[in-house]
Amino acid sequence: MSGRTYRVPFPARGSILDVDELAAVCELVRSDHTLSGGEFRDRFERRFRDYIGTAHAISVTSGTVALELAIHLADLRPGDEVIVTPQTYQATIQPLLDREVKVTFCDVDPHTLNMGPDVLETLISDRTAAIVLVHYGGYPAEMNRIMDAARKNGAFVIEDCAHALGSSYHGRIPGSLADIGCFSFHSSKNLTTLGEGGMLTFDRDDCAERLARIRSNQVDGIFRPAGNHLLEPPALLPWMMFAEDVYQVDCAEVSRAGTNATLSEAAAAIGIVQMDRLAELSSRRRSTAHRLDKIVAGYEGLRLHRPPSIIEHAYHLYTFFVDAGADVRERLVRTLDRRGIEVQLRYFPLHLTPEWRSRGHGIGECPIAEQTWFSGHMNLPCHPTLSDEQIDYLVETLDRSLAEVLEYADDVPAPQPANSSRGAPCRSST
Ligand SMILES: *Cc1c(COP(=O)(O)O)cnc(C)c1O
Questions:
Q1: Counting runs of H as helices and runs of E as strands, what totals does the chain give?
Q2: pLDDT tens readout for residues 257-283
Q3: Among positive and negative, which fits the CA dihedral 108, 111, 112, 116?
């Protein structure tokens, strides 16, 4: 579907950044303030942490880096089991490709497309070291049951919140519902920091200390000579180079060298303004989604991706289900596409991708995720850069297309051979 210009494109065109974000960057670059790792980063992190409701928020350069570091903090050992969702963007579980762990895909719930708690409860055991899940499309996963199961079995839980900003779950904010939350500020996401950026949110102080070191080129570990006075550092060295609590005693924890994943000050300055606008940006997504829901709800054989009122959907993706089968979905996708609406099917089930098949995964492992992608769902544009005119056209075109395609499916019998007539056999001899 690439290469065409759609009247209503799926991804954002241009950006959601506006004059206030520009002003923040202008002010920063004309000041004598550093552009790397300073006050704006700290302010953005405090703002984000307070919004999410965690003790810590640590910014990094992308959502992918946030997930890599979160999986690193799970301290997985060879042979550990990790349970993951198959229905997400590949970055959610990509870091596991390089580890000697046993990855188990947990099928999704057919209504939410999130990790299904019923299936999880059959898979989890004391061998489960970690769980990695996503809040699909901005619909929060069933975290109460998932965390109960995880706590009983001692599993570390990572929430991929790349879609979830603007959602809520029983009065709490995703990113505060598990051990660690990972956000992306890529330009397609609900909030962006100049195109790329990410954040980790969590409560544990030990994680904060390790992350602060890893993301700024220091090793992940604390140097402690443990009573061995030969290794005691010269007094001047720690005084000059490290805060006292950093240069300590215990090499055993060093498991990863540091990297540089510092969010730039310009990106952080924009992030602060975007936090001010989060409610406005979320409500634009929500209002488009509700208009589309109204249309979809008017037809039989379709199902909404709509949570109960105690859960708020962030509509990073607008999703609905076509229960009438693969043929009907295909006709609908082709009809909308012909009319300039770009439809997507997010996401191809990850256990069926070559990298996971080559590790022993395959068809039949997650029947609901497979059935949904191959025949049951679709995603329509609902990005806040869509103009009012584009949204009107999207809503009207969806209605017209559904009427045509579904009426055809319900009322018109399958095409008959030219020489037959309905209801009577061709030859009624004898
Ligand atoms: C976008 C996205 C990521 C990756 O974030 P980047 O900032 O692009 O690296 C991870 N997980 C999900 C579910 C995403 O949608």
A1: 12, 12
A2: 889 999 999 999 999 999 999 999 999
A3: negative
Phi, psi of 37, rounded to the nearest 5 degrees:
55, 65
Is the minimum distance from the CB of 138 to ligand 1 under 6 angstroms? no
d(CA 422, CA 367): 37
- Cβ of 92 closer than 6 Å to ligand 1, yes or no, is yes
> Which residue, 182, 193, 189, 149, is CA-closest to 166?
189
- Residue where the block lists tokens 């850069």: 385
Strand partners, 180: 158
Please tell me the residue having the least CA distance from ligand 1 atom 13. Answer: 89
Instruction: For tokens 């920063």, name the residue.
Output: 28
SS3 311: strand
Residues with Cβ within 8 Å of residue 180, at least 6 apart in sequence: 70, 73, 156, 157, 158, 159, 200, 201, 202, 207
Question: Token pair for residue 19?
Answer: 């004059």
pLDDT bucket at 236, cuts 50 / 70 / 90: low
Instruction: Tell me which residue of 44, 23, 24, 37 sits closest to 268, measured CA to CA.
Output: 44
Distance (Å) from CA 88 to ligand 1 centroid: 9
Distance in Å from the first CA to the final CA of the chain: 55
Q: Strand 302-304's sheet: what is its strand order?
A: 302-304, 318-322, 377-380
Report yes or no on whether pTM surpasses 0.70. Answer: yes
